[in-house]
């Protein structure tokens, strides 16, 4: 009789374990995938070296900035604009039409750790804002150079961001704004510094001091 009871208990335990395993699989399958950050974010040591090479200079020519001076969302090949390319590259289960425009999918705004399935809410942010670039040296560039900057899908310049967090960031530098999601702050300041280095843009003194502090704190 005791043997029968033990066998019954084992059967119940086995069934419970199997049910838990199935539930675990279902939970994992439905959980969002980890966010995909843009390419080219360098190591801490590389960024520290790049930061030390940046020219420190006050921003200038801000009053003459016009967003149209940076032709953006240009074609980057394959029938896709830079924005469409990034949404497809960094999204999850993205379905696009023949024009490469995403029709559905899910995207993580890493700055505020928010997922969205609304295409119009998945904006693409220039980590170094166009107006920030203009005041940091891009006012001296050709239009073609500014277009390359505004559509750079190879560096960590373009990030997916919800409309609200994109608006909150605006054209602020790391001395003025940092992502509320602290887990992305290290990569954020590394990306910011690297983009400025790649394009020979300057930093002001408060910006450089803040970057140093953020690298020490979050990396």
Low-pLDDT runs: 1-32
Beta content = 5-15%
> Given the C-alpha coordinates, what overall shape results?
globular
State the assembly state of the protein chains.
Answer: single chain
Q: Please give the order of strands in the largest beta sheet.
A: 1-2-3
Q: What series of H and E elements makes up the topology? A: HHHEEEEHHEHHH
> Strand pairing plus helix content: what structural class?
alpha+beta
Q: What is the total number of structural domains?
A: 2
How far the N terminus sits from the C terminus, by CA atoms, comes to 63 Å
Q: What's the mean pLDDT score? A: 87
What is the radius of gyration?
23 Å
- Amount of helix: 40-55%
For the sheet with most strands, the description reads: 3 strands, antiparallel
Keywords: Endonuclease, Hydrolase, Nuclease, Signal
Domain GmrSD restriction endonucleases C-terminal: 108-211
Pfam families: GmrSD_C
InterPro entries: GmrSD_C
